[in-house]
Amino acid sequence: MPTRKTKSFLLTRAPTSASTRSAWSHRNQLLECVPSEPLHARFIELAREHCHETYREPHTAVDLRVGVRHMTRLVTRWFGYSPRVVVGLIRVESVARGLITSRRAMKELAAEHGYPSRQAMNRHFRAYTGVLPAAFRKRVTQSVMSGNDPQKSENGLSPEARNDRMDKSTSQLAASTLVEEDRRDESTAKSLPVSQSRPDAVRTRKHS
Question: How far apart are CA 29 and CA 80, in angstroms?
């Protein structure tokens, strides 16, 4: 059985190909599908448990009690993406939820998710979403502030009223699994080449 000393790349070094953007666009289909087998469910569980740290592929394989190559074949079959991309996707989604549901500083969010620096988190986050964390937070906040009345902006609210309105809206946004981002991602996914669209590997039914 391999040990934790196995040498490998870091998951914080996200790939720059369109695969990460495609995975982000289809994150709901990828992460909410019914697991096809026990190892499938365990892989998702482990990735969520370790989303606040750098989770290397050899570590995942050890926890699954399988070899790295075998795990890579299984994960690619289940999701259409490598373990590195899927684990990174879950980590970035956790960062996105933190941006929406709290006002914590970027440096604090980076440390909470195991990034060595804010810059490392920025690179990883942008590789998946196409925007920096600060821009993501600003866009969602602006959407919340003008959600009920398009003509009413935050400029007309006092700081207390603005914070109160934000607090009431963030929980609803989190529960809808980043709906505002999904609307934009649907159009992005349509423009991707066929090879980068939703993988055929994801064919399992969602929870009813």
Answer: 12
Residue 91 DSSP class: H
Architecture of domain 18-146+154-178: Orthogonal Bundle (1.10)
Instruction: Please say whether the beta carbons of 18 and 127 come within 8 A.
Output: no
Residue 8 DSSP symbol: -
- Any idea what DSSP says for residue 196? G
pLDDT tens sequence across 108-145: 999 999 999 999 999 999 999 999 999 999 988 877 76
DSSP states along 146-188: TSS-TT--GGGS-HHHHHHHHHHHHHHHHHTTSHHHHHHHHHH
Could you tell me the end-to-end alpha-carbon distance of the chain, in angstroms, rounded to an integer? 39
Structural contact between residues 100 and 122, judged by C-beta atoms closer than 8 angstroms: no
Sign of the CA dihedral with 140 first, then 191, 198, and 114 last = negative
Domain boundaries, the chain: 18-146+154-178
33: left (phi over 0), alpha (psi -120 to 50) or beta: beta
Full-model pTM: 0.68
**23's tokens:** 């995975």
